[in-house]
Input
Amino acid sequence: MNYAIVFLGGGLGAILRYFIGGIAPLHNKSLWTHTLVANLIAALILGILSGAQIHQKWNVTSTQWLLIATGFCGGLSTFSTFSLEVVQWIQQGKWLFAFGYILLNVVLCTALIAMTHWITSNWA
Output
């Protein structure tokens, strides 16, 4: 049953990821913004979900965690695409852009999770 739950969540996350890739003005395969947007949305969801559980604001069941965190966010976030984009820029000699993009993804996603943890800890 757990496999089916992860499969369902992953499919839904992948559909949203595909949708984000087709949104104008983000719809341009040479742009990296759709990857960053997908990663930020997944970080936001994970931050809210884990922060709510840690601060005991919402009892997240293992089934909910599998569906949302493992499945949906796993299907939505795009570490492999992010990594491919970084490698392509390095191959093109765009080292500064590649490392800036790494920093942007890591800092923004980490900050978003930290911020949502803080917000959920202050819920009434």
Observations:
- The longest helix spans residues 95-121.
- Residues 2-121 form one domain.
- The chain has five helices and no strands.
